Every structure is written in C-alpha cells, then in structure tokens.
Amino acid sequence: MLDDSPIIKTATRAGHLQTDRARRMIRTPRPTRELAQSPLFQQHAEGLPVDERIRLSYQRAKAIGRAYALTPHDLITLSPKFWQLHTDPIWSMDGAAGTLVTLQYNCCAGTLAMFASERSDLAEVLQDVLEFKVSGQFCLTEVGHGLDAIHLETTATLLPNGDFELHTPHERAAKYMPPTAPVGMPCVAIVFARTVVDGEDRGVKPFVVRLHDGTTMAPGIVSKVLPQRGGSRPVNHSLTYFHRVRLPRGALLGSPDMPADARAAFFHSISRVAVGTIAIGSLGVPALQVSSFIAARYSLRRTVVDAENRRRPVMAFRTQKIPILTAVAQAAVMDAFQAWAVGLFVDQRVEVRVRYAIAAILKVVMIQHAQAMHLTLGDRCGAQGLFEVNQLAGMHADMRGTAIAEGDLLALSIRLATELLLQRYSVPAAADPASLLARHEAGMFAELREMMSGMPHHRSSEFDRAVLPECADLVQAIGHRMAYDAAVAAGVETDMVDLYVASCLKLDPAWYVENAGVARRKQKAMESAAVDAVFPRLEELLARMDVEPYVSAPMVSDDKWGRYVAGLTAFGGPGAEMDPVNGDGTGDHSACDSDCPKLAELRPPRSISDRVSSVAGSVQRWFAFGWPMLAVGVSLVYTAFKYRRGRIDG
Ligand SMILES: Cc1cc2nc3c(=O)[nH]c(=O)nc-3n(C[C@H](O)[C@H](O)[C@H](O)COP(=O)(O)OP(=O)(O)OC[C@H]3O[C@@H](n4cnc5c(N)ncnc54)[C@H](O)[C@@H]3O)c2cc1C
Q1: What is the CATH number of the domain that holds 383?
Q2: Which of 101, 102, 147 to mutate to test the pocket of ligand 1 (most atoms within 8 A of CB)?
Q3: Among 101-115, 134-148, 235-249, 593-607, which is the least confidently predicted range?
Q4: Where are the beta strands (DSSP E) in 213-310?
Q5: Domain Acyl-CoA oxidase C-alpha1 spans what residues (predicted)?
Q6: Is 247 in the pocket of ligand 1 (CB under 6 A)?
Q7: Would you say residue 175 lies in a domain?
Q8: With a threshold of 0.70, does the pTM exceed it?
Q9: Nearest CA to ligand 1 atom 1
C-alpha cells in the first residue's frame, strides 16, 4: 500500500502544484454571492406546493448556471471554475437546484463536450445546454440496473435506413431517477442504450435524445413523475420509457462499431460519472461550512437561565462547542483535502485507476463527515434544527441522495478497498507515516491482509463475510490520513488539525487503545485541549468561511427570525404580535459569562420607547401580582406572631 513508485511521486508533486492553482481559484470571489442574497434564493419556499417548488428550483439552477457561464473548455479541462461550482455554498440553500446544475453541466454538457470537438452538428445542442435554454439530463441507470449499469437493457437497434430505434423492453429497464417530467423548459438527455447492429450486441453507448418541449413529451417517450423522496428539497425524479422511438443516426455519440474492450468503452462513455464522484463529493466542504456556521450562530443567539439565574448562550456548554468546533475544523481540513485531491484527479500523468481512487476516497470521507455533522448539529439546535427552513435537515436529506448518486459510497469503498488489498495499484503514501492517522491506516491494512492470507480468493464467502464489512472503514481511514497530510501541507492551524485528528480517533477509539497506547481518557483529553485552543477564535473562523450570504435559516438571527415570523399564517386578532426576542419585552439578556463571544452584538438595540414600555410593564405586573402577594405574606407573618404570643401568654 505504501507506494514509493515514480508515478506516485509524480502524482504527489503534481498534486501540490495543482493544489496551489485550485486554492487560488477557490479564494476568488464566488460568482453566486449576490445571487444568494437575492429574493430568488432568500425566499422561503418550504410552504409552497411541490410543483411550484420544483419550478423555482429550475429557475435557481438556471441562475446558478448563468452566473458561472461554464464553457466546453471548463468542462473538458475541469477548470478551477468547474470545481468552484462544486464547492459553492449556494447548494446548501437549494439542493434540488444543485442537483439540476451538476446534471446539466457535468453529466449532460460534459458528455456532449467529449464528442463535440469532432461533431460540429452537436454545437447547437451543447450551447443550448450550456446556456440553460434546455434542461440537460443523463439517463443511465434503470430500475433493475443501478450499480451494475453495465448490464442495462434499454436497446438502440440500427435500422436498415440508418436510423436507430430506442426501446424499453420491459418495466425493469425503465430509466430511474433522472428528472424528465416536463416543467416548462424543453429537455434533452444523454440516454445510454445497448446498441444492436445486425443482430449483434455492440455494448452500451450514449445517444442524444430530445425528450420534450417543456410541456409535451416527444412521440413514443413516456415520463412518469415519481412522488417526492421525502425530506429532501423536491426534484421531479421520474421513470422514463422509450416505445420504439426513432432516432437519427447522428443521435449516437461515438462509433457504432464493436469496441475492442467493451468494458473499457463503457467506462469511457460514462466517465463524467467518475468526475461526478469527486465533484459532488466536494460538496462536503460547503456543507460543513454552512452547517457549522448556522449551528454556531444559533447557539450564540439561544440563551438559557442557569442554576445561578444567569442567562447564558447555549454555546457556553461543552456539548455545543465540541460538535460545532469539530465541524469548523473538519471544514478547514476538508477544504485542503479537496484542493489536493482535485489537483491529483485532473493530472493526466497520474494513472487513471489512481485518479479514480482519489475521487472515491474524497467522496467517502467528505460525505461521512458532512452527514454525521448535519445530524448532530441539527440535534444541537433543538426543535429549530428539525425544520427544513433552517437548512440543516434539508441538507441532510439532500446529501443522502448525494451519497448514492454518481458512486454509491459503499460500492465505491468495496471496489477500491478490494483492489488496494490485492495490491493491484496503490494510492499516494503517507507524508508522515508516524502520525496517528497514518498508523491507523497502516494497521487496518495489515489486519485485513492478515485475515485474507487464509482465504482462497477475494470472491470467496470468507472474504464476503470478513472483509466486505470493513471496506468502508478502510477507505475512510485512508481518507482521514490523506486529509490530515493535505491540511498540514496547506498550513491549516495546528489546533484545527488536532481537533480534526481527535474527531477521527472517535470513529475507532478501540484501535488507538489497543495499538497506539492512547487510552480513552487521553483521547478525550486530546479533544478537550483542541476545543479549548480553537474556541477563542470562533468568530474569526466563522468569518473566514465567508458563507453568511448563503444562510437563509431564520434561526440564526433575531432579524431573520422576525422577518420569517412576519410572513407566517397567523390566527387571532391584532395585539397578538410579540417581540420575537423578549416575549413581552422583559427578558433579561444581560448576564453572560466570558465564554460568550459577541453575544452583545446579537442582542437587538432597545429603543427609549422600548425601555419606557418595559418599565411600565414591570409596574403593571407589580400591581397585578406583586401587591397581592405582599399582602398575603404580611398576613401570614402577623398570624404566626399572634399564635406565638398566644402560646407564650398561655
Ligand atoms: C438523488 C439521486 C439522483 C440520481 N440521478 C440520476 C440520474 O440523473 N441519472 C441516472 O442514470 N441515475 C440517477 N440516479 C441513480 C443512481 O445512479 C443509482 O441510484 C445508483 O447507481 C445506485 O443504484 P441503485 O439505486 O439501483 O442501487 P442498487 O444497485 O439497488 O444497490 C443497492 C445496495 O445494494 C448493495 N449492493 C449492490 N451491488 C453490490 C455489490 N456489487 N457489492 C456489494 N453490495 C452491493 C449496496 O448496499 C447498495 O447500496 C440518481 C440517484 C439518486 C439517489
């Protein structure tokens, strides 16, 4: 596994060069910054009917696409702008729009661009997709063939006149998931079909097909819109059928000939899926940034009264600090990891299997961290965390889809781990083999190889039983080590890296006790020390992520909450309105311990009339409750006094 070969050394060097380039690009202003603050993105769509929400997501997707204005060159070279699109925090505002954007540019336009340089007749449709004049889709998987898409059953039969006939032979061959149901915008798709010429199966090839004009399906094409997935931002996912649809010869992208290597030809034609693996995996960076920002802002704003009657923000509790600061640290480390991995992935000198391995590792690690954090941070925001409007729950549900689409995390892990364990190739070695995470990775390899030594082969039931369940953990271990190396090389602050390492230890604490001599208490102490070191810089770290324009969650500020509440359906007459922060205006937010950065700024300024009405409210309450209570107290004392006097006198 620890490879010292020239190809890997080249890869690593190239990776660092590319990293610098990518990093510079990512630091340039995001093209969507103003768009994110526009009404198109700031409006709360959660209460709208599903159809309207879907149309809104298309509008948003179009606006994102136009803000980036990617060219065929961007798609073919995988330019920094392409990666910037896939690390843009605007995805956290509407994951459905994000899904549509990556299908449009990476999958559909990217596949067209692969063939367009030698096919001038494709220029127009490619331009339409790039300008988002049409919706661009990618119909690969079928109900019966997802991870084994190479066995798909849709057919494209060459007819004597040179046309192709596209056909769905049975229900199992329906294309599953691509959003092909009409929503007002014409739709064109790359459709993968088993190509039959003179009765011979020449393998799965891509065809460009116009599916509908925005309202009416093309003859012979049926789209059945699926009900919503549940929880995620709505997409018009569909089942798509072709009933003996005639396609002109030019619809075929590539040659109708029998390829020398059918498997290699298939993977070449779906190579945008491999790009998609690392592209949508990269979304882990903005996901961690936005979710940690939202949870931090809420935890600073939300106060509770403690045992000493002091009002404190919930951020003062260790149980908020640990997950929030961990997510901030993970975001910084994942940012460095993503830049390093992209550098390696785009370097054509690196063996293709290694590049695809890097894509898989990145996706597995990014999604693992981001998903765990979406859930934990959502929980730490109480009831507010459950509401889609506050972004965390929607991001989590959207990312469940991301974990499956364009490379299912488990399937990626099984394939990669098996190939690495069999030493078919290797990935870049640890920069610091003595680091805890590198030792963990090496230890897992050693343990699994030892288990395999007694097995007949990797297709045996023993391998299935003992190794398969470990594959995801192994790939995560490799990724954690790579992320650590990338963060150290990129100069991420030591305390942040320490906190990241502590979060990785928590995923396999027993290994570190058994093999690295790090006792459980020591592991917790490492985390605690890192949290203490990072916390004083929280505001600085939040500002550095620069994601505030991409936050629409009302729970993050009084101002946003007030505006959100003002737009809710109300029952009851005038006078029901309350100050959203102080209830009846008397809440005391003044007591706050030193653990509470910038809390003062989170309090809305109180006007003179507010203060006057607050004092008036106190006087009113005194007459309403204080005065009778005092009277009762005095009469009790008097009765007790009389009783005592009576006993003494008697
Ligand atoms: C949000 C979303 C958007 C999508 N968009 C598109 C799109 O635009 N175009 C398109 O063509 N497709 C799309 N898909 C489909 C996607 O590509 C497939 O869902 C994916 O390839 C997995 O296939 P499957 O769902 O059929 O899983 P299955 O093949 O049914 O696999 C289910 C599970 O079985 C297990 N499994 C399967 N094979 C193996 C194996 N060899 N070894 C061990 N375990 C195994 C794994 O646990 C796996 O998770 C989308 C999916 C999602 C979730």
Answers
A1: 1.20.140.10
A2: 147
A3: 593-607
A4: 221-225, 238-242, 245-247, 303-305
A5: 288-420
A6: no
A7: yes
A8: yes
A9: 401
